[in-house]
Protein: UDP-N-acetylenolpyruvoylglucosamine reductase
Organism: Massilia suwonensis
Amino acid sequence: MSTALPIEHDVSLQAFNTFGLAARARHYLRVTSAGQLDQLASDARAQGLPRFVLGGGSNVLLTKDVEALVLHMAIEGRDVLGEQDGKVLVRAGAGENWHAFVDYTLAQGLGGLENLSLIPGTVGAAPIQNIGAYGLEIKDVFHSLTVFDLARGERRTLNGADCRFGYRDSLFKHPDGAGLVVLDVTFALPRAWQPNLRYAELAQAVEAAGVQAPTPRQVSDTVIAIRRRKLPDPLEIGNAGSFFKNPVVPGAQCRALLERFPALVHHAQLDGSEKLAAGWLIDQCGWKGKNLGAAGVYPKQALVLVNNGGATGQEVMALARAIQQDVRARFGVELEPEPVFV
């Protein structure tokens, strides 16, 4: 006979979101094994309750209490599975802390994830957002993952094509993937590692340190130093990292903007479109360092919205909407938030 699920009620989520926003879960289950999800279908207390999946809370904006059963993914475990086609396969549970997992791979002498060091959140959330930084995205080092289908009550393995990765996007952010819960993720890390220094700021920092042939650990340390210099620690100032995606616009629109704003920061894409720097757009609208209520824009990086203490999700949302409106009015560009609004 299976043990009853440890479902709790009226649970504070303030410690479970990196913005540190006060919100409560009507029902709450800390998921420490895939077997608990198997039990959901037969647990009378869970019948008919909508589900909300929560990872590290680094990509969510809680604007109100969650009137659902919050499935807080806390499945642990990490293993080196072996080698396949010159790649080392490494698997981690969805609840593993992302940065701690990156550090684990480095400790095994494996490079490949170092450019993604110090990104807040969990392993399970990483493919959902297709997290990326300093010239690398999850899709570049992804092998497969296991999901639990809440609608069918079954587990499945998905490969990269199944996950439909895009810029800060994946299957899981669309209706047909909304009921899929990530249980674990497997990465394919190169045995013949070469440093990825395509991102100019990272390459310049490595060069400035006088390192001719950096190791994965040295690249990771450099990334950590850059992030700490530019971004607030969520443990000190509530935030969700970069709040807006860098907008991608047609080449013709970018050229028209350059005529009006010659200093526009833009990066050409392979399809002829241009990716604009959202932080630059926000900064030009005068928002860097400004506050709206207890919510504000981080003084060192306009792309980061922060909780200055006691902010509500509604205040952060109002700040985001005001920024979007100003950028739209001045540049004719739509900014899309990265976090999911709840």
Remarks:
- Residues 207 and 214 are 10 Å apart (CA to CA).
- The first helix runs from residue 34 to 40.
- The first strand starts at residue 8 and ends at 12.
- The radius of gyration is 21 Å.
